[in-house]
Each structure stands twice: as structure tokens, then as C-alpha cells.
């Protein structure tokens, strides 16, 4: 990222956080350059970017000033999550809280189940904006549509809200499937299957579908085997017992599995271990999410790690953008990178 872009993002966040009040004068180009250790050309370009983003205005001979933005009496931001009482399934809160640190903004948490019981018409009097993690996008999209129609500042977590003009922040699930498959191939595996709980093939949309297709895209298959990955996934999804799972894996000659998430991966490991299946010699397993249980398991689970703090930080920035500039349409779909945490569940072939 260029120096002016880094400086622009820092100044933009300071404005969004409320460190500068409407009509406050920003430091001069020279003062900004000295403070941040950059050239005056860099500081000038960063200020130009702020003007282009409609965050500041210029007065000839007078300097650069923060553009008046929407003032809101509500200083509460609502984060809606399936399991708000725990961070085991993703600590979005830390990224949000670190961005809001030192401001008058307050974060409130609520479960989807409770949120769906609220009177949506009263939300604007209680919250300045909402960051929403859909449990089921198909059933909850009408709720998001109502919030959008009411001009409630809204950011969607983990899923892209179809063509609704609302911003979203997601992990790069396609890349996650790819790096998991690549790791297994580097360990010598060729018959690599995907183990889902979600029947993603009904719509081929969403997180699990992206993970599957990321894995599929990176498989090295003969043309005669092109149908195998989906067939395996559909069959494995129906294996509800340890006996069924073991029998299918052995019959198909599968040596490695990428699971939909850590919960599914750990359940599969436990089932195979129940049958005294020699897992350490025959099957490698990768999950997604890096749950605490993944590291504690024996064998410890290799998993695709999402940067939940970065997702939370980007989500609240996108929300503050909307709160500060309600007349502008913000609908960027932000994708945050992932990485692989290698543990002992893939240390063999």
C-alpha cells in the first residue's frame, strides 16, 4: 500500500471516530508531513483523497476542514451475532472495540433470535447503526432489506447480501479452500474429499460453497474424475454414523478431508477414533475457524484461520462511513485474507 493511502486511511479513521469535530481545521500539509514522517507531496495527496471521499472541504488560503456530517444522539452500535455470549466462534468484538477505543461510541451485542423479535421501526431511536451476522441469509435477507429501506446504517458480516446495496465484510473463503487443498497436495495426497454439513449444492452460494469451490478449483483431476468431488461431498454429508463414515472413506480410497468447519472436522475425527480407526496412518483432516478446541484436540487440528479482529475493524469503519455520510451509497464487498494453521492432523500420508 502506498504511503499516501496509509496516511489517508489514518486521517479518515480519525474523522470517522470523531477525533475531529465538524468544521474543525485539520493540520497543514507541512504539519501532517512532519508528524507522520512523509513528504509534503504524500500529505497533500492524502488530503486530496479525503476531499474526494467527501470528508473535508478546502478554504482557499485558510486550510482543510472537516465536512459537517450527520449528527446522531444515539452513540450505540449494535452487533448481532448467533452466539454473542462467546468469542469461541469468532472474536469480531476485539477489532470493533479497538477501533472505537477512546471515542463516545458504545458497542452492544445481541443474538439473532432476540433481534428478530424486535420492532424494527424503533431501532433508529436506539442505535446509530447495525453490524449483522446472518445465521441464514435466505430467511434473514428480508429483515436486512427492511433495515436498508429505513436507511439504517448496516454492514453484513460473513456473507454477501446478494445484490442488496449494503456493504459486507467476509473472509476469503475461496482462498481458504485453495490453501487447504494445496497443503494436502504438498503432503502427497491426491484423493482429497470435502466434508460438509450444509447442502451447499442446493444453491452454490455462501460460505461453504466458496470453501468447496476454492478446494475444487485447485484439485488436479483427470477429466474422468471431474464429478468425484461433488459426489464425495454429497455422500459424506449423509454419513451420520462412524461406521458409515469409515466405510465410505475406505471404499473410495480417500486419504484426506477438508471439512466445512472445525466443528465438523472434530466430529469426524472423534467418530473415526471411536472405531479405533488408525487415523494417524490413513486420514488427514483440515477444518476452518481455528476454534479453541482445534488446538486442544488429539491430534491437534490443522485449520484455516480467519482474521476476525480485522473483519470487525473493517466492518465498524464501513458502518461509521454510513453514519457520517448518509446520503452516499456504500456497498463495498470487503474480503479479508486467511492463513493456514498447520498442526498434527495433517502431518502424515
UniProtKB/TrEMBL annotation:
The keyword Transcription regulation applies. Coiled coil: none annotated. It comes from the Bacteria. GO terms for molecular function: DNA-binding transcription factor activity; transcription cis-regulatory region binding. Keywords: DNA-binding, Transcription, Transcription regulation. Residues 1-69 form the HTH gntR-type domain. SMART domains: HTH_GNTR (SM00345). It holds the Pfam family Peripla_BP_3. This is LacI family transcriptional regulator. It comes from Lactiplantibacillus paraplantarum.
Amino acid at each position: 500500500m502506498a504511503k499516501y493511502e496509509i496516511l489517508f486511511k489514518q486521517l479518515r479513521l480519525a474523522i470517522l471516530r470523531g477525533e475531529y469535530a465538524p468544521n474543525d481545521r485539520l493540520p497543514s500539509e507541512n504539519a501532517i508531513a512532519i508528524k507522520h514522517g512523509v513528504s509534503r507531496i504524500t500529505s497533500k495527496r492524502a488530503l486530496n483523497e479525503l476531499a474526494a471521499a467527501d470528508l473535508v472541504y478546502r478554504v482557499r488560503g485558510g486550510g482543510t476542514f472537516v465536512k459537517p456530517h450527520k449528527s446522531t444522539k444515539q452513540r450505540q452500535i449494535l452487533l448481532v451475532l448467533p452466539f454473542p455470549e462467546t468469542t469461541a466462534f469468532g472474536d469480531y468484538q476485539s477489532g470493533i472495540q479497538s477501533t472505537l477505543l477512546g471515542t463516545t461510541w458504545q458497542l452492544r451485542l445481541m443474538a439473532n433470535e432476540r433481534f428478530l423479535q424486535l420492532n424494527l421501526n424503533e431501532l433508529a431511536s436506539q442505535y446509530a447503526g447495525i453490524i449483522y451476522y446472518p445465521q441464514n441469509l435466505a430467511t434473514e435477507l428480508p429483515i436486512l432489506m427492511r433495515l436498508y429501506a429505513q436507511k439504517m446504517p448496516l454492514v453484513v458480516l460473513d456473507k454477501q447480501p446478494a445484490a442488496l446495496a449494503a456493504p459486507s465484510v467476509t473472509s476469503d473463503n475461496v482462498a481458504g479452500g485453495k490453501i487447504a487443498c494445496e497443503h494436502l497436495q504438498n503432503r502427497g495426497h491426491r484423493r482429497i474429499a470435502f466434508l460438509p454439513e450444509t447442502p451447499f449444492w442446493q444453491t452454490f452460494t455462501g460460505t461453504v460453497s466458496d470453501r468447496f469451490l476454492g478446494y475444487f478449483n485447485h484439485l488436479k483431476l483427470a477429466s474422468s474424475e471431474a464429478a468425484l468431488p461433488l459426489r464425495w461431498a454429497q455422500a459424506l454429508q449423509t454419513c451420520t454414523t462412524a461406521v458409515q463414515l469409515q466405510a465410505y472413506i475406505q471404499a473410495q480410497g480417500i486419504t484426506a478431508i477438508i471439512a466445512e468447519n472445525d466443528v465438523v472436522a472434530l466430529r469426524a475425527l472423534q467418530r473415526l477414533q471411536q472405531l479405533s480407526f488408525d487415523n494417524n496412518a490413513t486420514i488427514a483432516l483440515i477444518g476452518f475457524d481455528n476454534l479453541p478446541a482445534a488446538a486442544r484436540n488429539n491430534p491437534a487440528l490443522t485449520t484455516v484461520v480467519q482474521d476476525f479482529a480485522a473483519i470487525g475493524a473493517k466492518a465498524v469503519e464501513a458502518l461509521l462511513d454510513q453514519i457520517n455520510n448518509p446520503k452516499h451509497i456504500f456497498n463495498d464487498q470487503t474480503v479479508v485474507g486467511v492463513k493456514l494453521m498447520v498442526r498434527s492432523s495433517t502431518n502424515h500420508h
